[in-house]
């Protein structure tokens, strides 16, 4: 007995009420994109469930890809069967025998959404449990911790059976919450912030500040590789690489050293905000964790935020470094982030940065220099790269993308 489809459970999407269809449609679109190279599969979506009809495709590879798609609470390779008791018994036994090994225990779990079905939930459990016990020698029941759990869903159109429940990524479908710009350094934190933002349904574009010759091509490639890891989750990410050398050199010349990091962050935020406007984004994402470094004290954030009214999303704000590293390892960005190629923030970091900068002071220091032409030039000369998953080839493209 081979599985003929994959049953997808929505989880959090089930709470969306009148907007549920919008979220389900977005999830269906994301699944189609991730599985686009599988021929003949069909995706059927209803208010309660989604089904991927395998039509002869390899279900194991599809299962691996589904694990990283946000918006899926759990899923199961399943078999569809008519709501005929004898056919259901026959299918249940064949499916169970395929998954059972001698000496294992089992239980039956039934979900009966079709309340008109002639048997109640407990009756179904008892009937199918008895059928398996009569036909599988040495089989024993364990309702608390079974080796094999045969799940039976009785729905209006048919019954579905499975012996596997695979945990999904949870969250919301990417793109269901709008677009935001991720300030992506080469460090550990910002890729994790991007990942967690995508989990809440945000479609992200990345912004990286690049200062040659002080930062090398290898540091740029490091960020491209990090972006590719995020693209494997979302299906594709646009990376904006901002030429920042001229601005950083001017900051070193015109701003007191202990305030130079504050001004650097403020100008980065201003440039990111300009790119956001051009790309129709609604927010900016950073990898800041409260108190982790000098620029991430509450006073620093207050002074830096002064340059924009755009919402700043900080998914890591209450996490410690160990928690962040654990997630970075899970999403396979940690080793890339640890490559010894510095970004512009680490190259130009002052020896004693101000941990409690005053907003009025940084405004005063910046008022002596006209940064507007440099900001405009940096935005104009941004290099845009479309990075696709599992691809060594990046595509340069125009603004109409």
From TrEMBL:
SUPFAM superfamilies: Adenine nucleotide alpha hydrolases-like (SSF52402), THUMP domain-like (SSF143437). It is found in: Cytoplasm. Pathway: Cofactor biosynthesis; thiamine diphosphate biosynthesis. ATP binds at residues 183-184, 208-209, 265, 287, 296. Its main location: cytoplasm. One of its GO terms (molecular function) is tRNA-uracil-4 sulfurtransferase activity. Residues 60-165 form the THUMP domain. InterPro entries: Rossmann-like_a/b/a_fold, ThiI_AANH, ThiI_fer, ThiI_N, THUMP_dom, THUMP_ThiI, tRNA_STrfase, tRNA_sulfurtransferase_ThiI. It is an enzyme of class 2 (transferase). GO terms for cellular component: cytosol. Keywords: ATP-binding, Cytoplasm, Nucleotide-binding, RNA-binding, Thiamine biosynthesis, Transferase, tRNA-binding. Its EC number is 2.8.1.4. One of its GO terms (biological process) is thiamine biosynthetic process. It catalyses: [ThiS sulfur-carrier protein]-C-terminal Gly-Gly-AMP + S-sulfanyl-L-cysteinyl-[cysteine desulfurase] + AH2 = [ThiS sulfur-carrier protein]-C-terminal-Gly-aminoethanethioate + L-cysteinyl-[cysteine desulfurase] + A + AMP + 2 H(+); [ThiI sulfur-carrier protein]-S-sulfanyl-L-cysteine + a uridine in tRNA + 2 reduced [2Fe-2S]-[ferredoxin] + ATP + H(+) = [ThiI sulfur-carrier protein]-L-cysteine + a 4-thiouridine in tRNA + 2 oxidized [2Fe-2S]-[ferredoxin] + AMP + diphosphate. Belongs to the ThiI family. Catalyzes the ATP-dependent transfer of a sulfur to tRNA to produce 4-thiouridine in position 8 of tRNAs, which functions as a near-UV photosensor. Also catalyzes the transfer of sulfur to the sulfur carrier protein ThiS, forming ThiS-thiocarboxylate. This is a step in the synthesis of thiazole, in the thiamine biosynthesis pathway. The sulfur is donated as persulfide by IscS. This is Probable tRNA sulfurtransferase. It comes from Cytobacillus depressus. The gene is thiI.
